Amino acid sequence: MTPSNPDPDFDPDRAPGPERGGGVPPGEGPPAEGGMSEAGPRNDPPKGWGKGPLIVIAVLTLLVVVGLVGYAVMVHD
Predict the structure, then answer these.
(1) How far apart are CA 64 and CA 58, in angstroms?
(2) Contact 31/38 with Cβ under 8 angstroms?
(3) What is the pLDDT of residue 46?
(4) Residues of the chain whose pLDDT is less than 50?
């Protein structure tokens, strides 16, 4: 009994593969690394923090220090 071919359009003589010196036909696989414009590390990564987060952290730290000093003065009296 011969197994039936699930894909009638499949021709095993034309199938790409290592035995035929083929592999994946051009255009069928993913692009090479050099062909992807968004791949790889950025040329100029940002250094340090932005000004906005530093200002927010500085203001919150100042508020905490002022609150602790005020609490210490109130408790001392």
Answers:
(1) 10
(2) no
(3) 72
(4) none
